[in-house]
């Protein structure tokens, strides 16, 4: 199955949401038509920012039925992963740069009954994950340096997306390609045309003057047009 034929998914980053009423915000994202919801988990070490613990996610779980994914921007994620599964995250995204034994850590995600994905910082080459593609259902290529929302999209990641798409196709693997960082109406087509089918957006969703529903529909249409 080629990456080009894979369905486009729009996934919000919750980072720009109003944290004083996260349950309502999560419900509003589902009502806007997103495919799942991404929680940016930051520990202040792997990235210079600190965000949500598992209890916050668990409190929001009853407010939506779409799947939750945890983007683990933490060092030694193997220490914490079970907490995010218990909080209701079906998919755990582990950074290749965050753990000493990536193959073992990804296998542990499956042992916890969750689905596994691996993420690459902008400077990390595709070759870093070549030998764990059989353990994951998705690879996340960061299109910003992780740690903050509202940053500029790094367009030089598009050849890297294309390289990964070609590798996945050559190996005949069933693996999605996700991108995250600076995705919006102007940048989404480039990422989609390069081979990404799962597109994370934060500030672009909340900046749309016509609201979340319009933002999701518009981004999906632009990505689908570029993918075909
Ligand atoms: C950054 C996070 C992203 C970020 C996306 O480290 O992983 O999910 O919140 O936000 P935008 O779309 O505003 O770049």
Main pleated-sheet profile: 8 strands, parallel
Query: What global shape is seen?
Result: globular
Which radius of gyration do the C-alpha atoms yield? 16 Å
Order of helices and strands: EHEHEHEHEEHEHEHH
Number of strands: 8
| Approximate helicity band | 25-40%
Oligomer: single chain
Separation, N- and C-terminal Cα atoms: 15 Å
Ions, cofactors and other bound molecules: D-xylitol-5-phosphate
Widest β-sheet, arrangement of strands: 1-8-7-6-5-4-3-2
Find the structural class using helix and strand composition: alpha/beta
Mean pLDDT: 97
Strand % is 15-25%
Q: State the helix count.
A: 8
Residue ranges: pLDDT <50 for 5 or more in a row?
none
Fold and architecture overview:
The protein has helices at 22-31, 54-60, 81-86, 102-111, 158-170, 188-194, 203-207, 212-227, and strands spanning 9-12, 37-42, 68-73, 89-95, 115-120, 138-142, 176-180, 198-201. Strands 1-8-7-6-5-4-3-2 form an 8-stranded parallel sheet. Strand 7, helix 6 and strand 8 (198-201) form a beta-alpha-beta unit. The longest helix is centred in the last third of the chain and has 16 residues, at 212-227. It is built from 8 helices and 8 strands; from the N terminus they run βαβαβαβαββαβαβαα. With 228 residues, it is of the alpha/beta class. The protein starts with 8 loop residues before the first strand and ends with a helix. The structure holds D-xylitol-5-phosphate. The site of D-xylitol-5-phosphate has 20 residues, from strand 8 and helix 7. Residues 13, 15, 40, 71, 144, 146-151, 180-183, 200-204 line the site of D-xylitol-5-phosphate.
